[in-house]
């Protein structure tokens, strides 16, 4: 790491960003979490994650309830999410679009 440039995942910067509740960005959201608090898989292969505070409820995706969860559509993201969950790693979750009542994760960054 370069000392004169702060990278997103340096702990002091990440902690500062984590103090934000998250922000809705055009077409989706950007959320910061010190760790994922739950992961679950559905019978049809859907994979959902949440964190302390979770995604906005009610969901910006329609009128249904999302209970603070977001949906991971990509198998690589599922593996990354499990890694972050099991190792209690900080994450940044970027969403874009909706799948039912859930925001769809398009990027998952692990610190």
Tell me what the structure shows.
This protein has 111 residues and is α+β, with helices and mostly antiparallel strands. The protein has a single domain (26-110), classed as Beta Barrel (OB fold (Dihydrolipoamide Acetyltransferase, E2P)). It is built from 2 helices and 7 strands; from the N terminus they run H-E-E-E-E-E-H-E-E. The protein has helices spanning 11-18, 75-86; strands at residues 23-25, 28-33, 36-41, 47-51, 70-72, 91-99, 102-110. Strands 1-2-6-7-5-4-3 form a 7-stranded mixed sheet. Strand 6 and strand 7 (102-110) form a beta hairpin. The longest helix has 12 residues, at 75-86. The radius of gyration is 14 Å and the shape is globular. The model is unreliable at 1-26 (pLDDT under 50).
- Report the mean per-residue pLDDT as an integer: 77
Biggest β-sheet strands, sense, barrel: 7 strands, mixed
Shape: globular
Question: Low-confidence spans: pLDDT under 50, at least 5 residues?
Answer: 1-26
């Amino acid at each position: 790491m370069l000392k004169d440039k702060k990278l997103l995942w340096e702990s002091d910067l990440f902690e500062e960003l984590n103090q934000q509740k998250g922000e809705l960005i055009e077409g989706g959201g950007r959320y910061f979490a010190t760790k994922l608090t739950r992961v679950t898989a559905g019978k049809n292969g859907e994979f959902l994650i949440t964190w302390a505070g979770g995604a906005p409820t009610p969901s910006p995706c329609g009128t249904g309830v999302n209970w603070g969860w977001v949906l991971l559509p990509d198998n690589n993201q599922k593996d990354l999410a499990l890694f972050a969950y099991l190792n209690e790693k900080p994450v940044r979750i970027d969403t874009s679009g909706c799948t039912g009542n859930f925001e769809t994760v398009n990027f998952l960054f692990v610190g």
